[in-house]
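Predict the 3D structure for this chain.
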Amino acid sequence: MERSTSSNVDNSSECLNPNVTRQCQSYFSTQLRQADMVNFTLYFESNCPDCKNFFRSQLSPNYEKLSGIMNLTLVPYGNAREQKSGSGKWKFTCQHGKEECIGNLIETCAIHLMKNISSYFPFISCIENDQFAEPQDSAEKCAKKLGVDFKSIKECANSDLGNKLEHEMAVRTDALSPPHKYVPWVTLNGVHTEDIEQQAEKDLVKLICGAYKGSDKPAICGEFKSTRRCYRY
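Done. Predicted structure below.
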């Protein structure tokens, strides 16, 4: 296979050349940061009150501040069930009704079409922070507010592609070990325990900052406290 001539430094011996020392420092700093990143996955469903509360109280206010040390993965499926129809398509049944299934499809298609989490997280976060409207109505409002191409997302949600993508979310959810019992359900570096779940729901910043082993923690990691009390003065 022909070796790439990319400007990226991919051979440590090249760093002996003083002309690329600065590039090497940047490269290895990035590599170390990536190796230290905390992998946090949220399994949820679009119209679940407790999932919305997790977005509102923990994820939405803190994601941007933690994004430098956390790889966030969103899996919109939750407690839904699927069954293959005679046509070969998947039929989804959702805990909070048909509207939730539509919301799951919309969020799944947004993830697929918008590619980068920095692009689709604000959109999904906006949907989940709307406590009262149905997910599809929230999605339309949020798309307009954020300048998101909702037409393409809706077309995807109504298509065979959307059906296939949501099935993939179902497969990922059903593959959890241990199997999920509720949502929101989180994993930290691929692991779920009740302690991790409770920490995430109580203080996500503390959980992620504590799990991050790199030396360059963001400022927010110096802000959390081990206790939340009003002391006498």
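The CA atoms of residues 78 and 192 lie 15 Å apart.
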